[in-house]
Amino acid sequence: MKKLFYSVVFGSTLLFGAPVFAGCEISARVSIVGNEFPAIQTVGAGAQECTGANVETNLTSEHQKINVPGMQGNPAEYTSAIIANSSIVALMNEDVIRPLDDLVAKYGKGLQKSQLIKIGDNIMAVAFMANAQHLMYRADVLKEIGVEPPKTYEDMLAAAKMIRDKGIMENPIGGAYASGWNLAQEFNNMFLGYGGSHFKSGSAQPNINSDAGVNALNMMKSLSEYMNPDFLTHDSNATNAEYRAGNIALLNMWGSRAASQTTAEGVIDAVKNNHSIAGPMTVGGGSTPASTLWWDGWTVAKNISDAEAEATFIAMMNAIHPDKMKDEKIRTQAVWLIDGYQPTDAAIGVFEAAKMSTTPYPMLPYMGLLHTALGNELADFMQGKESASQALSDVEAAYTAAAKEKGFLN
Amino acid sequence: MGVNRPPTLYSRLFMRHSTFFWFVLPTATAMILFIALPIISVLLQSVHAPHQAVLVEVETCTPLVGCTVETTMDQEATKALRDSQPLGRFVGLDIFFDRGHLAVNEIKKIINNSNTWNEIFTQLSNLPFYRAMAFTLTFTFVVTPFVIIFGFFIAIGVNAISSYFKGLVIFFSLLPFVVTQLIGALVLFWMIDSRGILGSAVQWITSDPNLSLKASTGVMWLSLIIYGIWHAAPFAFVIFYAGLQTLPQDQIEAAKIDGASRYQQIRYIVIPHLFPLITFVALIQLMDNFRVFEPIVGFNASAHAQSLSWFIFNDLGGETRQLSSAAASSVLTIIGVSILLFPVLLRTWRDYREQT
User: Which of B49, B59, B214 is opposite residue A407, by nearest beta carbon?
Assistant: First the structure.
């Protein structure tokens, strides 16, 4: 009888929910702000397993609008912000996160050296996953036209033309080209793929109105001719909806969304059975992929008591405990940088991106301003209202005005 | 003789009006706290900018990449600067004149280098402020009159129907105004999507599968304007409808006896009676439409249409927040609204003077 009881108890813990780890006791409040994609939801839930004090999470796609104001107060509302290499810069610029060296020394057992984000002499964040945009495609459609998965954007265009000519799909390419952040990010990818670099070396002077910039824009324009005509309003979510509905066959998409492409609601069978992923593509004969490498990690606020910082660190360490990597569902959610992680099929794209030495997204104090300027000014070119070089000089002018205001340029 | 001495300024302001003074004190305090002080704060922000950034190059280590030398802010030096001058550095009107706002230097250049008006206009539309003004003013001056006209006719119509149906009709007429702007905009946005019901219908009617309502600036403007009218007409309707309830029935009857047609009754009795309300709706609508914002976000229309309010949102929403730029846009919004309202306010003031 006792044996039966135990087997039922253990069986159900294996069946239902992630394992709960003993020993996460905290004694002060923890409050986390971060993005909303599945892997981050897992991290948030992991921190909430801790007992002894309240652990709150605010996970939203608007996180970057609220994390700085929410950490500027004293005491800060958020004790931890989950950020990426782009968004840590804003927190660093405003000096709202604390160095983690002493906490890592005290509680950081089990962290891999590669997880520690070191800026200057200090550890400023603990990374837990890597991300990159890479190719996703429909194997059945490519088989039907008899081509291999494209390795370059030129191949992608050729494949798209064949798909359209054969009448399989009218607009076979998808892309998160929504005016604003997404469009700017696609430009960054393509620009780096053509060998561009965003700033004149060692300064905040913009450097995008170049051959690489013009080529990047022209390639984006060519791709857009094979996209849904509403492409300037399509963000990652809308692009994935098109993919899941079977309307597109080729797309450059975030690795963090690879696993959920087939598991979301309303995915048609053809997509479920033929969804495939590959590494990022190159462009213009270059060898650097037209993509950027990202990491996501967590930080600890500066304007909180040491007790709260300690509690936050412990809770976040629990959230990325190596034992979580035993959970099959969690394992597929991301390319985890955590010790003991065995890559799943969904991770191929990001690993390939790392192997091909994809450029990391620039972690510079003024990159956010350039990204915003790109997002605002490139739509005119994509709509055919102005030339590529005019659009790029508009971007540089808009960026320069903003950078002067923020004191990055004189 | 002291008896006939005119009242002193002091007694005029405070003795005679002491009741009035105590009566408005709570309101005045609230207005100073919630309206005057924020405006002063925005003004101060708009003439200050963050300090020059002190940059240093440090070794930065990240996963999958390893260690590289990257530029970052020197926290200690920056903190010292910020502590010595917490407001930032004074920049006068620099931000107002920069490219993101009035673009004074760019305009000079355009005027010097262009020969035709056409050239000037094309280049002006490349500057964010003027592009946003083109849309905002078009939106304001098309939506406002249509809202008043539609609101008026709905009110006249509803007033004429049997009281049995009135409640129901009023309820349904008010719905567009009840729906939150952002939600209403999102609903219409998905309807005109190329896979939405209206988008597909247009593609089917024109038998062009590539036609996109969202890809054309003209159609996007039209959608935003139609949405603006649809949303605000019930507001005008409900105001006018309330006004119609106080319509002097004896005048209408007298006009009927004199043989006035329905048109003449409306032209000579109803409209003059409602005129103060029309002015009121015009004022509110001019103000609201100049600050058009939610539809632009809801329609994801920033590639085609922008407004000052959208600029503020965008300045504060980026990974690097531009507070000074947002403050300057706010000040420009206040100035813009004042200019728009000036003629209406002047007219109201004159009417008031004539009456007294």
Answer: B49
